[in-house]
Amino acid sequence: MDADDVFSEIRDVNLAYLMLAQSLARRNPVEAPVRLGMSTQLTAIIAGLSAAQIVRLAESDMLLCGVGLQERSALSALSDSFGRHDMQSMHAAMLLAQVPAGTL
């Protein structure tokens, strides 16, 4: 994979992420910042972008999203297939809610 392929893949991921973020922000502006791991102000800005602005922003060669799982405990809570229980998703959500909101 050469550099052009990598940049093309990054732009595709950016576009998919921004479209998802905008959809979540418009559908549920209270829940979206928590799910996306970003501030309420940034979530509101993304919700208000036009399609042309989303495409232009996605064309960046920098990845606009990142893995929100910095803590081993959060990753473990989401991926532990041996200890599955009814409250596992609630436990993971509580751990992730403690992570400070990031910005692009």
Automatic annotation (TrEMBL):
It is found in: Cytoplasm. Signal peptide: none annotated. Pfam families: FlhD (PF05247). One of its GO terms (cellular component) is cytoplasm. GO terms for biological process: bacterial-type flagellum assembly; positive regulation of DNA-templated transcription; regulation of bacterial-type flagellum assembly. Keywords: Activator, Bacterial flagellum biogenesis, Cytoplasm, Disulfide bond, DNA-binding, Transcription, Transcription regulation. InterPro entries: Flagellar_FlhD, FlhD_sf. Transmembrane segments: none annotated. GO terms for molecular function: DNA binding. It comes from the Bacteria. The C-terminal region contains a putative helix-turn-helix (HTH) motif, suggesting that this region may bind DNA. Functions in complex with FlhC as a master transcriptional regulator that regulates transcription of several flagellar and non-flagellar operons by binding to their promoter region. Activates expression of class 2 flagellar genes, including fliA, which is a flagellum-specific sigma factor that turns on the class 3 genes. Also regulates genes whose products function in a variety of physiological pathways. Belongs to the FlhD family. HAMAP family: FlhD. Homodimer; disulfide-linked. Forms a heterohexamer composed of two FlhC and four FlhD subunits. Each FlhC binds a FlhD dimer, forming a heterotrimer, and a hexamer assembles by dimerization of two heterotrimers. This is Flagellar transcriptional regulator FlhD. The gene is flhD.
